Amino acid sequence: MKKLLFILVAVMFLAISPNKTNGQVSVDLQVFEPLPEINFAAFLLVNNLAGAPRIFSVRMEPKGVPVKLEGVIKWKKNQQSNFERLYTFLTQEFQSRNLSNTEIGNSDILIESDEMNSVLRDEALNKGKPTGTYLLEVRAIGEGGTVLGDDSHELLFLNPTQSLTIRIPRTGSSQNVGSVLTEWDQVLGVSGYSVKANVRTSGSQSLEEALESGNPIINNRDVGLKTVVNLRELLDREWLPGQEIVLQVTAIVEGPSGGNELFSNIVNFYLEDSESPFTAKLNNNIRSILESLPKELLEDTELLERLAEGDVEIIEIIREDGTKLTRLEIDELVSYLRDNPEVIVSFTENN
Q: What is the pTM of this model?
């Protein structure tokens, strides 16, 4: 069964007493939205909703008055101007009080009648996700069918297919150690975002492993509803030029069962000193190392000449197993080769 974010419940209260058939009942409908991804079938009203999620409540005043609850769910399809009735129900009489949908069909609130538009329901289900507009209406019905009070609420559904994507920094980019702006997509219905970042110390680490290892450099910092922040201002400990950073943003989506977390993609980027950009520094160091080697070692390669003329640029170093060296590992390798050029015994170029 496809999961949708449906609130298929409506409430209506009738507050009457045997001696006060002309009284009014205040009806206040509250929906716990935005709703998380929930199975549509869980909201089909039957005579026992004890196991259904808590998705709305109704407050009634005065209390202790014999009432019936009538609820109507309506659907307006995309590109249409009119609502169509999807589901209706009417409870048996009970004493007016505050309640939630989990009590309908349970305790003293039983269903007297209900009706589902099965054709419209199947059409809604076949969409695969909530589309158009849904409206929940509740009415308090008194003696003789008199409406004593009513309320309605247009339902806000959290699209279960929405995603959270970090737009900047881009994966593999170089960033100024003094200021790293990050921006991500806005997600509807969230109560806030948090940011987590860590240092990737080895190219053999997956991005997930790097993010979860050790002591995070930014440890789930709450940034409220901002979608653009400067990571430099969120640091729990200092970062350094040459480090590779992994980053993830989490959206907190409120819901009746406590809420869900929606995770972004994990982005990795490199820190460099604005006074000494990493790529330029790397190419200069490699060129210097090559120039220190015996000329016979360079007879079969044009790498030195092409570096000198700016025809090629070294942007990364890859191991034989295909994993990339981190910026810190590259710095250590270059430093070692500079001090020990004799370990270089040959060159092989792959076109």
A: 0.43
pLDDT in tens, 244-280: 899 999 988 765 545 567 888 899 998 876 655 677 7
Structure tokens at 172: 């593999």
Task: Look up the domain containing 282 and give its range.
Answer: 278-343
Residue with tokens 């570096």: 307
- Determine, yes or no, domain membership for 110: yes
Would you call 248 exposed, middle or buried from its count of C-beta atoms within 10 A (0-12, 13-18, 19+)?
buried
Distance CA 97, CA 37 (A): 29
Q: At which of 272, 294, 321 does a domain end? A: 272
Do residue 191 and residue 103 come from a single domain? Answer: no
**Higher-scoring residue by pLDDT: 337, 32:** 337
No. of H helices and E strands in the chain? 5, 20
Instruction: Please say if the pLDDT value at position 52 is more than 70.
Output: no
How do 181-184 and 166-168 pair as beta strands?
Answer: antiparallel
At 288-316, the pLDDT tens digits run 788 778 888 777 778 778 877 777 778 77
Please answer whether residues 135 and 13 qualify as being in contact, where contact means their C-beta atoms are separated by less than 8 angstroms.
Answer: no
The beta strands (E) that lie in the chain are given as 3-4, 26-31, 38-39, 56-61, 66-76, 84-91, 94-95, 99-100, 111-116, 133-141, 147-155, 166-168, 174-176, 181-184, 190-200, 218-224, 228-230, 244-253, 260-263, 267-272
- Give the distance, in angstroms, between the CA of residue 43 and the centroid of all CA atoms in the same chain: 24
Domain co-membership, 176 together with 125: no
Residue 351 lies in a domain: no
What is the average pLDDT across 71-78?
83
Among 67, 66, 84, residue whose Cα is nearest residue 76: 84
CA atoms within 13 A on the CB side of 267: 26
Distances (CA, A) of 61 to 55, 140, 181: 21, 11, 52
Cα separation of the two ends of the chain: 52
